[in-house]
Amino acid sequence: MAFNIAAAIGGAAEEVARGMNERQARLISLTDEAWSDHKTQFQKKRDAEETKAEMYEETIKSIAGLEGVDSIDEAAAIYAKLGTDEQARDWVQGAQTLTSYGGNLKEMGYISGLPDDFEATDMTAAEYAKSFTDSVRFGEGLGEGTRVAGRLQTRYDQMSEMGLAPKDYTPTQVNYAEISVDPSLRGSQISIAASREMLTTQLSRLDADSPQAAAVQKSLDALNDAEMKALGGKIDSDSQLKAERLYRRIITSKAVVMGAEKTGMDITTDSTGNRTYTVNNSKIYGSWVASQIPTILKQQKELLPAKEYQALEAYLNGVLADNEAKATAENVDPELSSKAVPKGSVKQVDTNLLKTQIMADIAAGISYEDAKAEAIADGVDEALFDQIYAETQGQGALIGAGQ
């Protein structure tokens, strides 16, 4: 039988064509799969940025609600200055503690106002929040370095021209006002400072020999001792911060289980699952926290390295002392604690206590003149005040204050 070379060539051509079609189909299939994966990844990244924007928005709103913050513009500028959402939330917690006692952040020097030349943007908290997110663009990362890179780019161009490509996520662009912010406000530290100020003020207005004065002095001494151990000595700042975060995680987890009625803490959850914790009853909360701390220490002693446990123990002792200080301050008879010393008379003054009061006034941004006037009105000798103020601030402070 004769060999049909034409048929052989035709069959080979068909085989080659069939192979080429199969390879083309595989390439198209790969392109479609890569396109689908690319779209999925883009949507995940975009959704993650939008979720962060919602979280940032809540933090900015919290800042805007503080006494002394006058606008969303100012709140956004403060947020930008603090740097991260975690730092901003921690700062807000301390600021809320301070302002809950009637303080104004601006008046006390923890923040400055917007500069005169800053023009309000009329932006919303949501728009500001979006500006803190990252840009996510669909037309980027289209399979570079892969076999289908060129086809993906072609497909993107085609889909984009038809209006079918997903929209890019582009954050709002905005210029923030230059504003001064004291970033040192922390939940625990500023709470202790506020409690000390309350106790010091009350002690200065009580009869030195009264039982209430003794109770206040004991609580003040315990508070100062706890703070010294928690914030100084051998415990470094990283260990302090780690202890605070661990405690916050544990106590809030317990609060979720126990509920608001038993803990004195309201817990709200937003659409993304982020929780916000707000103390609604300081007495119930303080009592509940005090009841939980021994158990926390017992459990963590078995889990933590010695250094970390030491930091946690010192921190929790500070929490206990702070709670006790608040309870003591709230139990002082208002009539006794508001007694003013008769004008012209001078009372015996604990110089260490006066020095503590002066330091608290300086930290709160109270001027030398105002602090002195209040002390004299409270029966403190003028010369003694000047002496203690000089020891606290140095002679330069007196000259700068107008002496």
Task: Describe this protein with a few key phrases.
403 residues; mainly alpha; 16 helices; 65% helix
Topology:
Blueprint: H1 5-64, H2 72-82, H3 85-99, H4 125-130, H5 149-161, H6 187-205, H7 211-231, H8 237-258, H9 260-263, E1 265-269, E2 275-279, H10 282-301, H11 306-331, H12 334-337, H13 351-363, H14 368-377, H15 382-393, H16 395-400
Antiparallel strand pairs: 1-2
Helix pairs in contact: 1-2, 1-3, 1-5, 3-6, 6-7, 6-11, 6-13, 7-11, 8-11, 10-11, 13-15
Mean pLDDT comes to: 75
Beta strand %: under 5%
How many strand segments? Answer: 2
Q: How many domains, as an integer?
A: 3
Low-confidence stretches: 337-348, 395-403
Name the structural class. mainly alpha
Estimate the helix proportion, in percent: 55-70%
What would you call the shape?
Answer: elongated
